[in-house]
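Researcher: Re-running this chain for the archive, since the previous output was lost when a drive failed. Same request as before.
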Amino acid sequence: MNLPSAALRGFHLIALAAMLMPLAGHATIAAEISVIAGDRIEVEGRDIHLWGVRAPEADALCHGNGQGEPCARVSRRLLQALIGNVDVICIVKDGSPDKPVSAQCSVDGADLGHLMITSGWATDDRAESAGFYELQEQAARTERVGMWKYR
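Model: Regenerated structure tokens:
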């Protein structure tokens, strides 16, 4: 999979529910978004975890053409490519000042968690989502896409 590996930072408009104005609805801000991992972004210095999504661990290797590359790196590049230069809308699901905000985020109306999991570069975090993305993960495993191609 050839995804752009250029800068993992971008300037976007991001709509955040309850992040900047606690539990007060949506706030739209122009902000720089950094992709930290396949399940995490940073906005205005605040860590945002994609709700219900788990990116591969840093030490998990994906093997292709006899070479191994960390699955986590591929997952991060995919999230960056999905965000691209478009606006990101996040609905905060959970958060407190001492831990990352957990939010369901979308671009162009498409749920980033759904896209990451159906592409096979993330899994459903059942402990958080109660299986919200379970069917998408099962389909990715069955179709052997993304990291499942190598397992």
